[in-house]
Structures are given as structure tokens and as C-alpha cells.
Amino acid sequence: QVQPVESGGGLVQAGGSLRLSCAASGNIYTIDMGWYRQAPGKQRELVAVIRSGGSANYADSVKDRFTISRDGAKNTVYLQMKSLKPEDTAVYYCNEDRPWGRVWGQGTLVTVSS
Question: Are strands 45-50 and 32-38 parallel, antiparallel or unpaired?
Fold first, then answer.
């Protein structure tokens, strides 16, 4: 595996929840792992990042609704999303911040219906 693999996307009603998973290709305790999203016609934006040391940061638009976490035993990073809004609709990408550059997954689509 040379890139992270995302899963867990789907269709959900507004106010619902989803959990995205990212099976990392690198050791999640030595690299920063991020979730990004790209909505149609918009630029890719950072949603949340969990640093190698464990601290996390969030975009203002998802604070108090999304939680990023990790499981070392599975080498997997999660994005728990609650109180979803139609504006959260996007392709969500997992990113590994490697010393030589960023490595992206293929993305998973999240669609929130109103």
C-alpha cells in the first residue's frame, strides 16, 4: 500500500452522522494526518488534522461537529462527523504529510441531503 485508503462515505440526511476511515500507508504516530474535502466547483480545503504528537486542529466550519481520532493498532485515522449539513457535501480526502511531500488517498464521497 503506497497511499492512504478512505472509506465510509455515503448519503445521509441533514442532521445525521457518518464516520470516515483512513487506512494509512505510513506510521500514523510519525506523520501528520489530515482530512480535506473538495466540493464541486470549489478548492480543496482542510477539514481536520491530527499531528504525530496527537494534537488536533479543525476548520472553523466543522468545530464542535467533527472529531478526528486515530487507532494505532489498525494504523487508521477516523473522522467522526455529526450534525451534518448540506454544505458538508464533498469528496473527502485523507492526506499523509510525509517528509518528501503529501500523499493523497482516492477520496470518498459524502452527500448530505436537505
Answer: antiparallel
**Amino acid in the structure at residue 23:** A
User: What DSSP assignment string belongs to 61-112?
Assistant: TTTTTEEEEEETTTTEEEEEE-S--GGG-EEEEEEEEETTEEEE---EEEEE
pLDDT more than 90, % of the chain? 96
Pairing of strands 5-7, 18-23: antiparallel
Q: Grid coordinates representing 114?
A: 436537505
State the cell numbers at 80. Answer: 467522526
**pLDDT per position as a tens digit, 62-104:** 999 999 999 999 999 999 999 999 999 999 999 999 998 999 9
What torsion do the CA atoms of 13, 86, 10, 97 make, to the nearest 10 degrees? -140
Closest by Cα among 94, 100, 106, 82 to 49: 94
Task: Please answer whether residues 92 and 36 qualify as being in contact, where contact means their C-beta atoms are separated by less than 8 angstroms.
Answer: yes
